[in-house]
Amino acid sequence: MYRNLIFVQMLLHEVEHMEQYRKVKSDLLDFESKLLRLCYGPTLYYEMHQSEVTSFDYATITSILSYFEFEAIYYMEDPRERMAQIRSHQQILKLIRSFYKESTDIYQHEENELNFERIHGYKFIKEKFVAPTIAFLSGMTREEALKFFKVDMECKELLNESLKNSILRTYSLEERLLFGLPIRMEEYCEESKKLVF
Predict the structure, then answer these.
(1) Is 46 among the domain residues?
(2) 148, part of any domain
(3) What mean pLDDT value characterizes the chain?
(4) What domain range is 132 assigned to?
(5) Confidence (pLDDT) at 42
(6) Are residues 16 and 80 in contact, defined by beta-carbon separation less than 8 angstroms?
(7) How far apart are CA 157 and CA 163, in angstroms?
(8) What domain of life does the native source organism fall in (predicted)?
(9) Residue 189's CB: how many other CB atoms inside 10 A?
(10) Regarding beta strands 123-125 and 128-130, do their DSSP bridges make them parallel or antiparallel, or are they unpaired?
(11) pTM of the model as a whole
(12) In 3D, which of 172, 11, 185 has the Cα closest to residue 87?
């Protein structure tokens, strides 16, 4: 049963990426859509111009490859992956809830998986508590590819918006955990208590 859950979770994770892609191509201007658009930027550029790869100049190819390398290094902090993981586990929990009681082992196992994904990526760096999306965007601002794709200013604006104290009031704890935005240390401690090891 648990192996089947892993397979279902992987499928739902990929379906969530398709939903993200739809948001990226839409005209939505909410925080999530802007964040996704920024993260998918160079990848979308490559997909749209893939047929021209042979005619790309060296700078274009270098920028695209550099961004792909960045994505691999920051995979665990990538907001796209984080949202896909969390939402896929939420969908599975809804499914399980319709068949089983919340006290069953399978429900508790999946709830633990969801709780792990929600706090995953929050860490201490140089005595500062850093949110995963902040780490991702900070790393992204150092990427030369962003200048090439003319999204470096968008990245800095989104990073600044994410670091404002008002983010704690603007977004609920659920939303901040989903997006990987800053949370208070006491919120992190409360969330980590939900984990069953």
Answers:
(1) yes
(2) yes
(3) 85
(4) 2-192
(5) 64
(6) no
(7) 10
(8) Bacteria
(9) 10
(10) antiparallel
(11) 0.84
(12) 11
Confidence of residue 82 (pLDDT cuts 50, 70, 90): very high
Q: Which amino acid is at 39?
A: C
- Does the residue 14 lie in any domain? yes
The residue type at 12: L
Name the more confident of 16 and 125. Answer: 16
What's the pLDDT tens digit per position in 112-122?
999 999 999 99
Distances from the Cα of 117 to the Cαs of 136, 164, 168, in angstroms? Answer: 16, 24, 20
3-state secondary structure the chain: CHHHHHHHHHHHHHHHHHHHHHHHHCCCCCHHHHHHHHHHHHHHHHHHCHHHHHHCCHHHHHHHHHHHHHHHHCHHHCHHHHHHHHHHHHHHHHHHHHHCCCCCHHHHHHHHHHHHHHHCCCEEECCEEECHHHHHHHHHHCCHHHHHCCCHHHHHHHHHHHHCCCHHHHCCHHHHHHHCCCCCHHHHHHHHCCCCC
Cα–chain center distance at 175: 12
Residue 37 in contact with residue 24, Cβ under 8 Å? Answer: yes
Does a structural domain hold residue 27? yes
Confidence bin at 39 (pLDDT 50/70/90):
confident
